[in-house]
Design a protein that fits this description.
The chain is mainly α. It is 32% helix and 0% strand.
């Protein structure tokens, strides 16, 4: 794969459905399934992570040292938060689910 894996196993769950009226039930099922298998894997691939599922998912997509480096680069080059980024909970707060959006 074209990314640095954080562990020995990579787990990815997907759900596909046609009817928008089924969004809530399918998203709920997917998130419950993700929660059940999360202990079996390490981290998340950022391009496939459901960042709305939990505010920590972006951070857990990177090795701890890499996350800190990205935070430092963002602070240096975008101190005012002009650009939207999953690297900053403040700028991505509106993108998160209501239970994750609280400070």
């Amino acid at each position: 794969m074209a990314f640095s894996a954080l562990g020995d196993s990579y787990i990815a769950l997907y759900a596909v459905w046609q009817d928008p009226r089924q969004d809530a039930v399918n998203i709920n099922w997917l998130r419950q399934a993700m929660q059940a298998v999360e202990p079996l894997g390490t981290g998340h691939y950022i391009a496939e992570a459901d960042l709305t599922a939990a505010s920590s998912r972006a951070r857990r997509s990177f090795a701890p040292d890499d996350w800190q480096r990205l935070q430092s680069l963002k602070t240096t080059y975008d101190p005012d938060g002009v650009f939207w980024s999953y690297l900053s909970p403040e700028t991505s707060r509106s993108y998160l689910s209501p239970e994750d959006a609280s400070p």
